[in-house]
Write a structure and sequence with these properties.
The complex is a heterotrimer of chains A (about 260), B (about 240) and C (about 200). Chain A is about 70% helix and about 5% strand. Chain A has about 260 residues and is mainly α. Chain A has two domains: about 150 residues, no CATH class; about 80 residues, no CATH class. In chain A, helix 2 runs antiparallel to helix 6. Chain A is flat and about 60 Å long. Chain B contains nine helices and ten strands. In chain B, the strands form two sheets. Chain B has a six-stranded mixed β-sheet with strand order 6-7-8-3-9-10, with helices on both faces. A four-stranded antiparallel β-sheet of chain B has the order 2-1-4-5, covered by helices on one side. In chain B, a hairpin with a 2-residue loop joins strand 9 and strand 10. In chain B, helix 4 runs parallel beside helix 5. Chain B is globular and about 60 Å long. Chain C is built from seven helices and two strands. Helix content of chain C is about 75%, strand content about 5%. With about 200 residues, chain C is mostly helical. The longest helix of chain C is centred in the C-terminal third of the chain and has 32 residues. Chain C has a single domain, classed as Arp2/3 complex 21 kDa subunit ARPC3 (Orthogonal Bundle), CATH 1.10.1760.20. Classes of the chains: A mainly alpha (about 260), B alpha/beta (about 240), C mainly alpha (about 200). Chains in contact: A-B, A-C, B-C. Chains B and C meet through loops of B and helix 7 of C.
Amino acid sequence: MITEIDKYAAIDSLIHRWDIRVKIITFIMISFIFSAYRSLFTVIAGFFLIILISMLSKIPLKFILSKARVPMYFLIPMMLMLIVSSGGDVLVSAGIVKVYKEGVLLSSVIFIKSVSIIILFNIMIHSARFVDTACSLKNLKLSDNLVNIILFSYRYIYLFFQDLQKMRTALKLRGFKSRNSMVSLKTSAYLVGSLLIRSYEHTEKIYNAMVLRGYNGAVVSNRVFRLKFRDFLLALAVTAIPAILVYADMNKIMIFGKLRTW
Amino acid sequence: MVEIRELCFSYEKSAVLENINLKINRGDCLGVIGPNGAGKTTLFHLICGILKPRKGSVIINSKPVTGSFNRDVGFVFQNPDDQLFNISVYDEIAFGPINMGYSREEITASVHKAMALTGTDRHSRKPPHHLSGGEKRMVAIASVISMDPEIIIYDEPTSNLDIRARRKVINFINSTRKTNIIASHDLEFILETCSRLLIIDNNSIIADGDPSKIMLNRELMESHGMEMPHSLLHRMKEHIHDTQ
Amino acid sequence: MHISDGILSTSVSVSSAAAALVIASVTSRKIKQEDVPEIAVMTAAFFVASIVHVKVGPASAHLVLNGMLGVLLGYAAFPAILVGLLFQAIMFQHGGLTSLGANAVIMGLPALFAASFYRLISPSSGLGIGVVSFVTGALPVLISTALAAAFLVFSGSEFYGTAKVLGVMHIPIALVEGTVTVFAVSFLKRVRPQLFY
C-alpha cells in the first residue's frame, strides 16, 4: 500500500526529469481535456496517447494498468445502471429491462475516459518522490497549511493503519463478527473512537518532538526546483494532441460514436 | 494438547518459519525467546489461526486450526492498546463472553471471576483508556481469561511495566492452571514462570528444554544474540565447579 | 457516493474543482500554524478509520464519518477531507484528478454543515445529545448523496436513473452512520472529552 508509493520514483526517464510543477499543471490540464471527450473514437485515441506517456515514464505498464482495477468496482455498477436507464433507442429488451444504445455508448466512453484519467494520475504520482510532489504544491501557491497537512498525515497513515489492523485482529480473536446488530455497530463505533484517541495521543508527542528539532511551521524539501525551457516544451508536446482531439470532438470532425451532447 | 506438524510460513518470498515440529502438553508453561523478527509472533498467529500456514498444520485438542475464531486459544497482545477499546473495564471483559453467546448470568459470573483473579474489580466502571500501563495489562489479561480458553498466549507480557506491575503479572501467571505460551525478552521473568523453554531463531527451533539448563549454555545463548540472566551466574559457577 | 472520473461533465468537474480549491484555501488559511500537526494526525486517523466496514443489510459499506470530522475538526474538516481523498486516490486507486474536487465538495460541504450544526444550532435547539449526534452523523450522508445526485443530473439527463438509485441506496447507510456517530460521540465524550473544543 503505502510502501508502493515511492517504488518507481528513482527511475531516470523523461517524465521523471520533468519539473514537477509543470508536470502537475500539465497532467491536470490533460485530465480535464479528457473529461470533455464525447466520442468513442476520441477516447480510444486518447487512451493510446496515455499509454505512450506511460511508456515514456518507464514505469512498468503492468503496474500502471493494475491501478485501474479498483475503480472498476465503482464504475461497473454505474455502467450497468446507465445501460438500462439512460433512455433513447432500445437495443435489446427482455421483459421490463431495456438495454439502450445511448447507455451502452455512453458507458463505454466513460469507462475508457475514467481508466485513462486514473492512469494519468498514477503516472504523475509514481514519477516522483511523494514528498517532492507535495512540496512542489507549495510552489504552486497552495496554502502552506494544506501542504503541511498532506506531508504530516502521510507520515502517520501507515502507523495508524497498522494500529487498526492489530485492533481488528484482537476483535476477531475475541469472537467478534460484523453483523446487522446494534452491538456490532457499537463495537465499530468504539473501534473508531479508540483509533481516534490513540492517534490524538500521538499529537502532543509529535509536536514536542518537532519543536525540539526546530520545527517552525515550514517543511523544507531539499529538492531545488529550477525551470528549464524543455519543461515547457514537453508540456506543450504532451498537451497538443489531446487538445487537437478535443477540438475535433467538439466540431464533430470525427462523428464515429457521436453521442447526444450534454 | 497442541501439536504442530511440519509447519512452514513465509511472507511473500522470505521464509519466516521452516519445518516447525512441536508438541505442547496440557499445563505446560512454555517460554519462547529469540531475537526480534525471529518468527515468534508469526508462530503465535499461526497457533491462533490468524495466519494460514503455507505448509503443515496446527492441531489443538485433536482439531486442526482453521482460521476462524477458536475459543480454545486466548491471545494477550504486546500492547494493551491494541486490545482495549470499550467504554468501561466491565464491558471490555464482557466483550468476549457476549460474542461467545453466553447467557446474561454466565456473562456476569465470568466477568466477576476474571476481575477477581486479575485484581481489576475496583476499575470496573472506568474506561480502560484512563488506566496506567500495568492496570491496562491486567485488564487485557482479564478480557482474555473471561472467555476461559484452555491455552493463553502472552506476547511480551512484561514490556513497559514497572517492577510492581511486572510482579503482579508473574504472580498471576504462576497462579493459573492453564497452558501458557509466553514470548518475552525478559529472561528473569521466563525463569520465574516457565517450565519449558524454546529458542527460535533463523526460522526454526534452536533449542527446546529446561529453561535454566538452556540459559546456562552461554555459547548457545550468545550465538543467538542473548545474554545469560544474572540470577544464573552463581549457578553457573557451581556448574563449572561440579564439572571440575 | 464516490463519483469516478470520466462521469461528470467537464463544466461540472471544472467548477466543482475550482470551488473545492477556493474552500480548501480559505479554510486551511484559517488554521493556526500550531494546530497543523494535530489536524494532520486527525486527518490520518480519520482516513484510516474510514476503512472500517459495517454491515448494511446484506452488503457491507465503509464508514463515511464526514459528520464526525466536522464535529471534531470544525472548518479544518474540509482540508482534511480533501487530503483524505487524495490519499484514497493514491493508496486505494479510488480516482484521478478530475473527480477529486467534486468528491471533496460532495463530502466536505456536509462536514462543514455538521460542524456548524453541532456547535451553533444544536445547543439552542434543546435536543438531547443522542439526537444531535444522530443528526450530525446521518444528515451529512444524505446531503452528500443529494450533492452527488445533483452533480450527476447536471452532467447529463442520462444519469437521472442512476442518481435516483444512488439516493435510495444511501438511506440505510445514513441510518447506520447516524447510529455509529451516536455511539462514537458518547464514547469520546466519556473517554477523551478534550477532543471536543
